[in-house]
Amino acid sequence: MEKKDLQQARMRSYFIDATREILKGEGLKALSVRTIAERAGYSYATMYHYFKDIRELIFLCVQDFQAECATYVQEETRDIVRASDLLKGCSIAFMKYFIQYPGIFELFYLEKMNAIGGQKDIAVSIYSFHDRLCEEGWKRWADENGAGPEVVERMKARLRYAVTGMLLFYLNRRQPESWEEMHSQMHAVAEDCLSSLL
After folding, report:
1. Which residues make Cβ contacts (< 8 Å) with residue 142, sequence separation at least 6?
2. Which of 49, 94, 95, 120 is most buried by its number of CB atoms within 10 A?
3. Domain 1-51: which CATH class?
């Protein structure tokens, strides 16, 4: 890589890292060209030299957050063998990640799509994110239970909506009141989702 390319990659990383920090800590409402530039240590005019607009930065951060969450979920579930336990474990790890970073949950599930780029591929990527994290569990579960693709798709939808809904109430209404209760309820909900379609 040439010196100019290295410098450009380094400059881009300053702005991406600044955007990530703001989104993680404060959410989309705190994000502006000026706050990003200030956090990165450069002028907002410099940012436009490396990025088309703020939406490009947000899109890159969405991809980074998904990769970070996927790594977290894999680490939390790497020793789980049984399919239903893996699906529960993935769902619980998914929830734990977003509880740590409520600004990212807000970005993914509460912001209007035009605020984060409005691109269909971003919407599909966010919508199917939980399904992708659980993909190995779904494959194992289908094999263990002889479930066809139609049943698996219905299960994915039920579990996806249950997990996202539970997170929404926990993060915004503190219901249930404790993580222990949330964890217990998630196990029960996942068990219901996995058994109700057999």
Report:
1. 148, 149, 151, 152
2. 94
3. mainly alpha
CATH 1.10.10.60 intervals, the chain: 1-51
| CATH number given to 62-195 | 1.10.357
- CATH 1.10.357 in the chain is located at 62-195
- The full DSSP string for 12-44 is HHHHHHHHHHHHHHT-GGG--HHHHHHHHTS-H
Q: Residue 186 and residue 166: Cα distance in Å, rounded?
A: 8
Write down the pTM of the prediction. Answer: 0.86
